[in-house]
Amino acid sequence: MQNSEIFISYAWGGESEEMVNKIYNFFLEKNFSIIRDKIDLGYKGNIKEFMQKIGLGKVIIVVISDKYLKSENCMFEMLEINRNKDTWERIFPIVLSNAKIYDEIDRIDYLNFWDIKIEELKLKIKTIINPVGIGAVIEKVNQYNDIRRIIDEIMEMLRNMNTLTPEIHEKTGFESLYLAVNKVINN
Cβ of 7: how many Cβ atoms within 10 Å? Predict the structure, then answer.
């Protein structure tokens, strides 16, 4: 993996994807190697391996939205990022207005969301007549538990990081993002 690779972690669709399109084009114009699933994960590509590769990245732009915080794929990417340490130094977040991470009452809704997902899956597992060959299902329960373990820590980190608003990023032509990313890549 090249040190100059920039990965983007985001939830598909809506405002999140619009922001990613702008960021992607901006960094392409600056001749950076920018890795994005819809472009770089080919037909029949291994999604899990791709998400693990994102987790190893030196520079990961993370577009945080409500959908991101409720997506098992996005949160798996965050698990991988967190597992590979130095999360604060390696992520460059843009927090969209629908990501409710700044107030405890709203943050509790995300904790409850993952608790409910875990409980629903556990209840469904109890309906299995023959438990042979359910390793992938058990692995998913463990993944949801891992997400539940880190999500509050991740939201707290994001809340304490001056991520600037999407509007500021766009208004300044992504200057702060560019300078921060460029500094890490050149170190």
Answer: 28
What is the chain's percent helix, strand, coil content, to nearest 5?
Answer: 60, 10, 30
The identity of residue 69, as a single letter, is L
The candidate with the shortest Cα–Cα distance to 55, out of 100, 19, 16, 1, is 1
pLDDT attached to residue 137? 95
Q: Packing angle between helix 135-160 and helix 104-125, nearest 10 degrees?
A: 180
Architecture of domain 5-185: 3-Layer(aba) Sandwich (3.40)
pLDDT in tens, 135-182: 999 999 999 999 999 999 999 999 999 999 999 999 999 999 999 999
**CB contact at 8 A, 135 and 183:** no
Question: What six digits make up the tokens of 21?
Answer: 């399109």
Closest CA to 180 of 81, 94, 96: 94
The answer to whether the beta carbons of residues 178 and 166 sit under 8 Å apart is: no
Sheet of 33-35, strands arranged across: 33-35, 5-9, 59-64, 91-95
Interatomic CA distance for residues 128 and 138, integer angstroms: 12
Cα separation, 126 vs 182, whole angstroms: 50
- The pLDDT, as a whole number, for residue 187 is 83
pLDDT tens-place string over residues 13-35: 999 999 999 999 999 999 999 99
